[in-house]
Amino acid sequence: MELILSLALLLVLSSLGVLAQPEEVWNRTYGGPGIELGHQVQVTSDDGYVLVGHTESYGAGRIDVWLIKTDSEGSEEWNKTFGGVGDDRGLSVQQTKDDGYIITGYTKSYGVGNSDVWLIKTDSSGMKQWDRTFGGPGLEAGRSVMETKDGGYIITGGTESYGTGGFDIWLIKTDSEGNEKWNKTFGGPGYDWAFSVQQTKDGEYIITGRTHSYDDTGEGDFWLIKTDPEGNKEWERSFGGPGYDASRSVQETNDGGYVIVGNTESYGAGSQDIWVVKTDASGNEQWNRTFGGAYYEAGSSVLVTEDGGYIITGYTESYGYFLYRLGPTGARPGNAWLIKTDSKGNKVWDMIFGYGAFEFVQETIDRGYIILGTTTTYTGSVDIWLIKLKEM
After folding, report:
1. What is the spatial distance between Cα 257 and Cα 131, in angstroms, rounded to a whole number?
2. 26-390 belongs to which homologous superfamily?
3. CB-based burial of residue 8 (10 Å sphere; 0-12 exposed, 13-18 middle, 19+ buried)?
């Protein structure tokens, strides 16, 4: 009966155009003669967009953090670079309550170690107000940042300097000026790393990444960790099989559970598929779905949409125009992949865009999507890629 009702609802929604595949409104690229990569985009309070990545073409060093602000049409309003003589990369950005921006990534130009977590706060024009580094003698990187309810910031990533293993998940809480309030590590003797953190509705934190310490084969599993407001672990769950499985993104869902996306070599149809896992509020699996073909697929982000479904970004070599081939630079250019599902993870529609990969997606106020990724041309140019979709 439930299946019949679900199908009937899908038919009604389809007839109303609610589930229609959106259309491309515009796309923009940003770059120069070097390699530029895009990592995260956010809708800003003026209905424009802010995106972060890194650039080889501009700035002070070999690779610098690159922050770009656009209007609602994707036209650049300003851009800023941050970095020194080393390798500095921006991996996550959010607009803050004061209309400025908070960025995390890593720096090899500053700090005390080989690579340190880098936290940068700017004003609304992208001018740096302050920055902080966190790290020891080893390798550290920040992968995800968000402003917390108390006006501070929560950062997650990985550390080689602290914890119990070769690499451990690192969770850092700061005040509004970026001063550390506390930090926690999670891991064992193997390689453990976090890619995404979100403050939950109850003021606690949910983290996802991958673990090589707590799986049966050592190849790597999805790892989901729930902490209290002080970063103390409340519970953890791992998901995976005999192959390499790694989670990249987590979101709290409307029912108080969590949805995770990443890659799996253990399940699916090909060498590696996109894998989506849905859990309840305690991290117990409710369902999972794989998306992919005979070759290589990777999932990079998941977002809970207004209709209670999910939108997933990633990459495919099985479908589209550019299938499993080497480009002139030795890269593996495939196709950027966007997948929309219902609340049960069943695919409603998907869209493929050639020669690139998507990293992040956000829903826009006009019932559309803004997607950030990287595109590679046959001439070897690698640029940041921003695409706007809208239901017509």
Report:
1. 34
2. YVTN repeat-like/Quinoprotein amine dehydrogenase (2.130.10.10)
3. exposed
Beta bridge partners, 243, equal: none
Q: Does the pTM of the predicted model rise above 0.90?
A: yes
Q: What is the rounded (10 degree) CA torsion for 97, 145, 301, 161?
A: 180
DSSP, collapsed to helix, strand or coil, labels residue 270 as coil
- Write out the DSSP string of 124-150: TTS-EEEEEEE--SSBEEEEEEEE-TT
- Left, alpha or beta for 380 (phi > 0: left; psi -120 to 50: alpha)? left
Domain boundaries, the chain: 26-390
Count the helices and strands in the chain (H runs, E runs).
Answer: 1, 28
Residues 6 or more apart in contact with residue 288 via CB below 8 angstroms = 239, 267, 275, 276, 277, 278, 345
Which pLDDT tens digits describe the chain residue by residue (392 residues)?
Answer: 433 444 344 444 443 334 679 999 999 999 999 999 999 999 999 999 999 999 999 999 899 999 999 999 999 999 999 999 999 999 999 999 999 999 999 999 999 989 999 999 999 999 999 999 999 999 999 999 999 999 999 999 999 999 997 899 999 999 999 999 999 999 999 999 999 999 999 999 999 999 999 987 778 999 999 999 999 999 999 999 999 999 999 999 999 999 999 999 999 998 999 999 999 999 999 999 999 999 999 999 999 999 999 999 999 999 986 554 444 444 455 799 999 999 999 999 999 998 889 999 999 999 899 999 999 875 568 999 999 999 87
